[in-house]
Here is the input.
Amino acid sequence: MRAAFRGLFVAVIAVALGAGVFVGPASASLSLFNSFTGNEGVSTDGCGSNSASCTLQSLIPTGSTIQAAYLYSSTFSTSTDPNGVTLSQGATSITPTFTPLGANTFLQAWRADVTTFVQSNITLGSTTVWTATEGAKTSAIDGEALVVVFSNPLRPTQTVFVLDGFSSSSGDSSKVVTNPLPAGFTAEMMIGDGFSFDGPNPKSPIDTGQVSTITLNGINLTTVAGHCDDSQDTGCANGNLFTMGSTNAGSHDDPFTPFPCDAIGCIGSDHEHYNLGNILNVGDTTLNLNTINPSHDDNIFLEVFDISGTAVVNPTVPEPASLLLLGAGLAGLGIYFRRGRRR
Here is the structure.
């Protein structure tokens, strides 16, 4: 009887905790895709165009090792996918397979692993130019982003992590737990955003109709994230409404967004590349990030972080429903045990 009871006890605990392990935070639809800790760095860039192709850049230091490379694409119709889009470097090209990241009403983003192609074709120590060709699908694809993670023995210990998916317009949250941030720490974030429109001129936005607000630990980083910053056309329209914070990308490297960035006068200066050190302090261990898009009409699909030391994203804890399941299981076992003792 005792052996059978112990077996049942372990089984109920495993089922209850298992439910907690596999269910992420209820409010988050952007989730951790991959993370890297060591002498890490990251290069990001984006482009959008109603022409058949647009160009992306990366600038990776000599002596680096390419850890991973991902090509993202943003569409504004769930009936269109970017499969068939090519990534080229010079005369060499690849047609990667894209995975959908979830639909935000009619908006959708996609990811393709292009690590092997980038490893074979990048030129370390100088700017490498890549061409994304959308072909006949260009009118339904807003743009592409390229994320390249590398390690370099001259870099300090950093954690690079990539969250992707789709942004719930009514509000999304992500939690990052780090070792205490050391003196001289660096912490930055780059986001990718599709289908955000704030006027026809990428250099001079005229309204705040489709912007997003991003807060860190309850403080606004920006209230005007979005717009078609990375349009390589002369104007903004469906098919090039795309922005990606760019870093370590040669001439496409974006400066940090001013802090705090607020109201229409800052939209043109919000490059979706944020210095989190404006809010964080030495010794901090928790980053609570929240995004919201009141217009329900753009899609933050990507967040890339580069932070000093080591960090863990969205630590797995049992959610209330899982805790209820665990409690119910334990209560049931208690009843079973009491009944057994009466016998």
User: Anything to note?
Assistant: The helical segments are 2-21, 115-121, 320-342. The first strand starts at residue 30 and ends at 38.
